[in-house]
Target: Alpha-amylase
Amino acid sequence: MASLRFRQVHLDFHTSGAIPGIGEKFDKRAFQESLKLGRVNSITLFSKCHHGYSYHPTKVGVAHPHLKGDLLARQIEACREIDVRCPIYLSAGLDEVAAQAHPEWVVTRRDGTSAVPFKASWRLLSFNSPYLDYLCAQIEEVVTRWPDNDGIFLDIISAPLDYSNTSIAQMLAAGLDPESEADARDYAERVLYRYFERTTAAAQSVRPDTPVVHNSGDVSLGTVRAHGFNTHFELESLPTGGWGYDHFPLLARYVITQGKDFLGMTGKFHTTWGEFGGFKRAASLRYECAAMLAYGAKCSIGDQVHPSAQMNTDTYALIGEAYAEVEAKEPWCAAVRSVAKIAIVSSRQNQARWNADHTQGLAADEGAGRMLLELHQPFVVLDEHASWQPYEVVILPEGFVMTPAKAEQARAFIASGGRIVAAGSALLNEAGDAFALPPAAGVGLRGRSAYNPDYLVATEHAPRVPVRSPIVIHGGAYEVDLAKVSGDGARAAVSVLAERRVPYFNRTWGHFCSHQHTPDAPEQPGAGTSPAAIAGEAIAYFAHDLFSAYRRQGQPLYRDFFEAALRHLLGGVLPVETSGLPTSGRVNVLEQPGEGRYVAHLLYAPTSVRGTFNGKPIEIIEDLVPLRAVSVALRLPRVPRSLRLVPEGRALDFQVSDGGVVHFSVPEFTAHQMVELAYE
Model:
């Protein structure tokens, strides 16, 4: 399969059957000029939309009743003439025409109602019905007519619990209990994988190398079997549509470990898909595309064409502002790999089960990721199958389960020189009553504290934490026992980064103080306080659910404690050190081994919240503020021989200090700057 192109558009065309004149204003030259204006070199075009209508003559499906001509064929012809690729889209999970004609094909909820996933009238189709035969026939019709297609994009893929008569009968026949949600989920996965097998085979029935993507709005972490049905990934992440600007970086840092080409997918909309007349500022698209490049992705921007098929020149002028920059940067962004030294091991459980749902993020994983983003540290996200050996430090967020197999993996990692930062239950055994992997020799677990909230108090081992007073933290904590080592000198092997201070009492209806919670109680002599954060030679441990707390409360002081733990384990120096880059700035480092160079990416754009969409804040970027004199120090596997700003080509002075740390300063940049570090 050819590598993905960098400048793509996903051209939505979900069009009601009540709208006349479908495609009547399509003009090949105007279509081509729009793509040229936008500097687009690949565009996903519609065969069938969510409404269930096809936009070309069909013997299998239902053409839109008001379609004027063979729209898809004309669009493909226009693209071929100007060397623009055109993957073909078919809605898989939604087909309103089929749902109306065959209500027995619709997913049935447990209460007997039809599954309606969105606010509108869409009904989810069951892949455990003759609908799957219908869908596969549609796919085969498309690839037979266009055997030279550039790929098949199948949308709205999920594993819903289906309680239709057919599904219940098949569950019973398979020895499954429909009353058991676990059995219903097991059955739903069987149906899902049957869908994957049949639709992938249909898409590749004419040409085995046909690219195929099954889109579910996210990537199911750890579901290796499901990943095998995608030739590449397209990471749907519209920041203003509820995903936010920190969703894509975490997803991309997982997908880059999977060894497949991938796209980032944003939208030109102010909110999200289906917004006619919605426009972002060019600043937003410029930053979003730059971020895709910085995290190793190609770029895709979502648009929705008018039912008349007349292209909107304002949209393509907007896209062109972002893609002009992408085009200039492409040589430094192809065939890249991560050189991160830090990895977050996801705390998601049951990873073998399909779990793709961008609305169900894990607070602990996200909190750890946000801390690293704000500390400007490159990192990756690992699933349960991944090796830890390539990394210097792994982060185990609370919720990670230290099974015997994982404990063995952790011990081997430490024996090879690796370091671990863990929080909450992540170091405990499966019963949760003792450390499976103690932070240091002699350290034990007393149990769960009775207090919530309580307080963190920084010690001399966390000198960068600016507050020395007790700092409130919610969620409760584990009590760690250091008594065994306090009297024999072994305590010197353990640094206490933060002590715990408890309140006078927990807040109840009849026992409370002030508006929120009870203040910290003075230490009682001989009470033997339990530490909140300790660090040994190889493991740093937080007794609280630190990462979830950061995701929910956003208290920067929690990040300061995390930084102290990282510095302790890494000898005081982080893999990336910066000066002059705000915490909302981002740093990533990728390698182009074929070109003999690293590329450091610096990103910065201030976001603001302007209104809400579906109950979630709309984050926007409107003003791109230049930064000046940003200093960077990088620890890299190889020492570079030259540095320059790219694509500008301006050489940079640099120094190399002990340990091969490369120091340089970027005089000024706006939104995104790449620095090439060429090595022998």
